[in-house]
Amino acid sequence: MVMRRAGIIQLLDGRHPRNGRSVTFALNGLILLSAIAIAVETMPDLPDRAQDFLGWFEITVLLVFALEYLTRVICSPRPLRYIFSFWGLIDLLAILPLLALLQPQWTAVRILRLLRLIRLLKLFHTSLALDRMSRAFRAVRGELTVFGALAAMMLYVSAVGIYVFEHPVQPEAFTSIPMSLWWAVASLTTVGYGDLVPITLGGRLFTTLMLFIGLGIVAGPAAIITTALLEADKFGVESPPGSNTKNMSNKEIKK
Amino acid sequence: MVMRRAGIIQLLDGRHPRNGRSVTFALNGLILLSAIAIAVETMPDLPDRAQDFLGWFEITVLLVFALEYLTRVICSPRPLRYIFSFWGLIDLLAILPLLALLQPQWTAVRILRLLRLIRLLKLFHTSLALDRMSRAFRAVRGELTVFGALAAMMLYVSAVGIYVFEHPVQPEAFTSIPMSLWWAVASLTTVGYGDLVPITLGGRLFTTLMLFIGLGIVAGPAAIITTALLEADKFGVESPPGSNTKNMSNKEIKK
Amino acid sequence: MVMRRAGIIQLLDGRHPRNGRSVTFALNGLILLSAIAIAVETMPDLPDRAQDFLGWFEITVLLVFALEYLTRVICSPRPLRYIFSFWGLIDLLAILPLLALLQPQWTAVRILRLLRLIRLLKLFHTSLALDRMSRAFRAVRGELTVFGALAAMMLYVSAVGIYVFEHPVQPEAFTSIPMSLWWAVASLTTVGYGDLVPITLGGRLFTTLMLFIGLGIVAGPAAIITTALLEADKFGVESPPGSNTKNMSNKEIKK
Amino acid sequence: MVMRRAGIIQLLDGRHPRNGRSVTFALNGLILLSAIAIAVETMPDLPDRAQDFLGWFEITVLLVFALEYLTRVICSPRPLRYIFSFWGLIDLLAILPLLALLQPQWTAVRILRLLRLIRLLKLFHTSLALDRMSRAFRAVRGELTVFGALAAMMLYVSAVGIYVFEHPVQPEAFTSIPMSLWWAVASLTTVGYGDLVPITLGGRLFTTLMLFIGLGIVAGPAAIITTALLEADKFGVESPPGSNTKNMSNKEIKK
């Protein structure tokens, strides 16, 4: 009996010797489909039939994950420990919108609808991606802090500068320093929406100066994250599948 | 006779000992000219004479490639094998618009007109560029998958977040989550068209956060492709012309 | 008595053996809070109570830093040397807005209000960030000069070119070469606000050409700064805390 | 007498043993000032006095460079060889606008006014920058060709695709494929002016796909140029001043 229970947990975690990852793949596929459904649901001109279908699909998904949660609680060797673990709480939160089925007027509660998005986190349960990402962020935490501080200061100085130059001429555009901060973010990341544009000579010279110095500093965090993720990915590929990740990173340090 | 046929195939493939690449260069030049002609044809204020000239040019190009196709079929040692090969099918598809000459009313069929663009693929027949590119993509397939998945999740989360913040205030701009996804693509690639811009404080703070984390993740695929293409190019330059590419990549792995 | 004075200076500089960095942390936190206050103050629809609170907060901050200044002057072993040192002058300038308390009509003097921003510089007094940044800039001074000159020339040529193409068609947009220079900055940094856009065929072809050549040259300074800051950061992390920075960079050169 | 002439040439070329680079610096400064003057001249609301001043400044600059040209012709050991050399022709073209002084009605001839910009090229005569840049471009010629071809094809395919999707809905925006090509350039370089924006679902999905693949390919040329210029700069700094550049690059190859 214990064996059979352990087998079911293995099945849900994608570590079952025979049926392998098929169940996990099906559940992850369901999560992705429901993510698409949540997006499509918000489209305004949706025909009634599609709306109905999405509603029924949502209930099906909720019931499937409720079933998964109950199975995990029943089959877990220590149910309480699972219930209060990180992934146990995520699994519980992801099925909370079921309450709206019992009390239909709760559907209006926005937070309940947003809880459905927590399902996305479940994608990371059986994949290495989250581990990889957190490893990457941990490896560059120091650099990110320094660059983040420099970038924040650069943005603040840019916002104050452009406010001084542009506020007297465009008081309805550059209304305040927090508003100018939004301009600084859009400009120094080179997004450049064009909703706020300096028009004075001083403001333009200042922008030119800030762009030439600031792009390098504001581009820092992005460059660090790209590099770190590429590094973490390389390590992940090099290690044989199933190897202990912590062990590997220790070896990395010994080198 | 067989020799002469083989010589013609060599001529068309740019491997002829004496006349070298001249025929291939002429055919590729014709493809490029027809690509320009297809673009110019769509310009609205074109004088009638230019329109006529482009029509005749198009027919000439079609006839030249029909001639090439027939020559290849006749001169190939195994005609059927050529006809059903990848490049044989491409060559056939590229001359299908000739049907519009026989049945003028088919000119209206759009798909027939677009088939002319398949000629561009013929450019890759005798060049190493396609080989290089496919090699580059194969080498980074794993990294592209991981980054593609992270970028897709980042875009989805950004779209949902901005929808939650901006939809109540700008319901006609951020109409739905798929619409917000378009905003997320334009913002996180730093294109920033400016057709959709957050105006709430929450939306702007969320955008700032997403830009600082997301640029690094969304820039990942582009950085990987640039690097891979540069690497593939380097290998291509280092290897002597005519060397076996697969052999070389094996050597790379042995290192 | 001398010991006690030295102890107070150590406390303010964050080098006190027991109370450690607590005082510095409190003072830096106060600077960051006042930076936020300066930004919030400019928001137009602020309720009177918030305005009053920010006014009192500003006076408190000024008094705290005036107290710090007086303490440093009194406790310094050589008061005059401190007063005329770089950080002594910064500390003095940062409390100059106190004059507005004595003569309320001086509040209108803009320069006096902007002096409050000098406080931000005080953040660097006890941190290594400024040292790191100046080291990074010094290391790439030569490269920055070459790239800066090339980028300036690229921008000038782009501005003249686009003026020649667009001025006759859009005289109200591309009014002059200095105006076109603003377009060149916004385009070649890929910010692309969209306030000035070429519409002639020549102008667009010229822009395409400039973008393909110019992006590489204009992106140079930013790439150099990112790399230099990452390098400087790496060196900073590797060196044990408290080690002599100049010594370390010598070792770097010996390698 | 020959010695004195050679001395004058040395003076103009900045290789004079005693007076060193002072004359070259003065002449280059004059070129930069005249570049600024050309830009300022185009500003519409310039007062008459400034206009007059710029006119007189322009004449002075022209006379100075006419004097330099005459001196070089007279003092050159082989005047004809100088006159027909590359730099001799540049020097001559740069003073051609003097003709407008003799025949005032020629001032209207635009090409004559633009010739003044050729002076900028004279900046490179005595500097190493042009040498560095041309060395950098030569080193990456092969890679630039491959990437340029891929980028051109990517832009063409993007333009055709967006035309197919957007022309039926926005015929006044995406009028033709050449117009769509302008959209492709502005989007794939991430400039994103916002003058042309896809609004159909198909067009937006296509843009997303193209951005994820295309950014890596279109960013290629810029990345190659940045890297090559940084490399060329490094070599330039490492070599002792006055060393033979060609020699050095040979050593590079031998390594």
CA-based shape of chain A: elongated
Using CB atoms under 8 Å apart, which protein chain pair has the greatest interface?
A-B, 39 and 41 residues
Largest sheet of chain A: none
Rounded mean pLDDT of chain A is 79
Q: How large is the share of residues in beta strands of chain A?
A: under 5%
Low-pLDDT segments, ≥5 res of chain A: 236-255
What oligomeric arrangement do these chains adopt? homotetramer
What helical percentage do the residues of chain A reach?
over 70%
Class by SSE composition of chain A: mainly alpha
How many angstroms separate the termini of chain A?
46 Å
Tally the helices of chain A: 13
How would you spell out the order of helices and strands of chain A? Answer: HHHHHHHHHHHHH
Count of individual beta strands of chain A: 0
Overall radius of gyration of chain A: 25 Å
What does this structure look like?
4 copies of one chain form a homotetramer. Chain A is an all-alpha fold and 255 residues long. Chain A has 13 helices and no strands. Chain A has helices at 2-13, 22-41, 48-75, 79-83, 86-95, 99-102, 110-114, 119-122, 129-139, 141-166, 177-188, 201-238, 245-254. The longest helix of chain A is centred in the last third of the chain and has 38 residues, at 201-238. Chain A is elongated, with a radius of gyration of 25 Å. Mean pLDDT of chain A is 79; it is low at 236-255. Chains A and B meet through helix 2, helix 9, helix 11 and helix 12 of A and helix 10, helix 11 and helix 12 of B.
Helix/strand layout:
Four copies of one chain form a homotetramer.
Chain A (H helix, E strand, L loop, with lengths): L1 H12 L8 H20 L6 H28 L3 H5 L2 H10 L3 H4 L7 H5 L4 H4 L6 H11 L1 H26 L10 H12 L12 H38 L6 H10 L1
Helix pairs in contact in A: 1-3, 2-3, 3-5, 9-12, 10-11, 10-12
